[in-house]
Description:
Layout: E1 10-17, E2 23-30, E3 36-45, E4 48-50, E5 53-55, E6 59-66, E7 72-82, E8 85-94, E9 97-99, E10 102-104, E11 108-115, E12 121-131, E13 134-143, E14 146-148, E15 151-153, E16 157-164, E17 170-180
Parallel strand pairs: 3-7, 8-12, 13-17
Antiparallel strand pairs: 1-2, 4-5, 6-7, 9-10, 11-12, 14-15, 16-17
Amino acid sequence: MGWVSYTSTGIYTNIYLGLNGCDSTVTLDLTINYSSSSNIVVTSCDSYVWDGVSYASTGIYTNIYLGLNGCDSTVTLDLTINYSSVSTVSVISCDSYVWDGVSYASTGIYTNIYLGLNGCDSTVTLDLTINYSSSSTVLVTSCDSYDWAGVTYTATGLYANIYSDLNGCDSTVTLDLTINYSSSSTSIVTNCDSYDWWV
């Protein structure tokens, strides 16, 4: 006789020859409890807390628990960690800037949060500098003509030139020009000895 391994619940009987020469019947009422194993698949952003432990990288993690039946219960965590992203966009614009359908008219830091393709947040910060266009008017009254920015004007009117400022924005200068015209005339005089002429 040798050892026999039983792997299932049941009633098993063995008969032995006793020391006194009589049979001895032994019945085994056996309950077999089984260990268990399970697998948990999790996808998380940045980190995942499991049984009080924070995991920050993708991997296979295993915990062993004592089951209610007294046998071990093995749980495997198949963890995928996706990461959130943070980025900054620097923009310099004239007068205003439209970002995601919103018009911004002043310098500042603005933040939008998007859902990334991996299911995690993507935070984008707009570092915005707004430079402003300028406009001014120059009043000039001149005789006959006026030279402005390489152009000779001979008629009264409003004329505009647009320049690019150092900040990259347009600077509009309007010339409000009045042209007065010189006059000339000829006096024909014939006189004897002398002539008095107002000058």
